[in-house]
Amino acid sequence: DTEVTQTPKHLVMGMTNKKSLKCEQHMGHRAMYWYKQKAKKPPELMFVYSYEKLSINESVPSRFSPECPNSSLLNLHLHALQPEDSALYLCASSQLPLAGGNEQFFGPGTRLTVL
Amino acid sequence: GESVGLHLPTLSVQEGDNSIINCAYSNSASDYFIWYKQESGKGPQFIIDIRSNMDKRQGQRVTVLLNKTVKHLSLQIAATQPGDSAVYFCAEIRKTSGSRLTFGEGTQLTVNP
User: Fold this and answer.
1) Which residues in chain B are contacts of A101 at CB distance < 8 A?
2) Mean pLDDT for the stretch of residues A42-52
3) Which of A39, A52, A103, B82 is surrounded by the fewest CB atoms within 10 Å?
């Protein structure tokens, strides 16, 4: 199984809502990532979990809260988002260390719209 | 600042032709360079990577060339097919940046039948 799955595929939420994005992989990867991608732009790293511990937070606003319940699951909890947070949210996983031969596998993303 | 970027935002080719997608980088400390393909509605998909101590690496129908002198990376796709239509991103990994993959701006490749 070389797949990263993400749910939901699409999400529309109001600025006062609380929602969560979910990501799952069964490749035994010990690093998992959240990226944000705006239209026609490259993915931007948000968070990295290494061995289920948060290792990188790219100064992401606290309205985004990541969680890694176990080595296969990664969540992104959303609260009080702004319309400018509308984007494609991508999850990825990889073996460690991140280097040649240990490429990142990406999920299909969740298309988020904040009204 | 340091960046990974692309020369051309769009590229249109005829089916069967060879495609060349270019990428410029400015950080000599990059350890690996990777090419990703992103089709509409999908996440990026790994194509090929190259270590910084190599000049060339070949895969199936794809070749990556690295010119460290001018800090230039290219992806060559042989006999381009309609299924190759996508956005292509180059990306880099630096040992000093931990588990960070830094993407350059993408190139939209369109293959005309």
Assistant:
1) 49
2) 96
3) A39
